[in-house]
Amino acid sequence: MIENVSSALKKYLEGKPYLSALLSFAAIILYVTVGIMLFNSFVYLGGFISGLLEYVFYLAIVLCLANADFQALMIGLGVRSIVAIVNLCQALFDDYLNFFSWSSFFAILVYGFFAYMAYTKTVRKA
Questions:
Q1: Residue 99: is it exposed, middle or buried by C-beta count within 10 angstroms (0-12/13-18/19+)?
Q2: Element of type H or E holding 99
Q3: How many domains does one find in the chain?
């Protein structure tokens, strides 16, 4: 079923001039984005950069889904859930805040679930 969605999404994105050029670089965009997000967890790069990274991350997910590259999705979503785990631990063990970050908790659940689903899809393909 997801293959039908992927093929229809790929046909749609190939009709757009800028997005069709980005389709071949989808995995690279995803890996670089989550790498910078992981770096941003330890060194704050600013609010604008953080927001821009979120939008580029979602674009890379759509591009990888269009390419049916489930291994890249598994790695990217897994690293994004690790970023959420780091953010949750930082919020819990900070000297001044000591609060439970519900947004990080739900990000772990959502991104972890989709990473697991991409993992099962990758295992079935092999």
A1: exposed
A2: none
A3: 1
Q: Report residue 119 as tokens.
A: 């993992």
pLDDT tens-digit profile of 52-106?
A: 999 999 999 999 999 989 999 999 999 999 999 999 988 888 777 678 888 999 9
Query: CA angle at residue 46 from 42 to 47, to 5 degrees?
Result: 115
- Cβ distance 64 to 19 under 8 Å? no
Amino acid at 23: L
Alpha carbons 56 and 92: distance in angstroms, whole number: 28
pTM: 0.89
Amino acid occupying residue 78: G
Res 125 pLDDT > 90: no
| Domain extent at residue 22 | 2-125
Amino acid identity of 101?
A: S
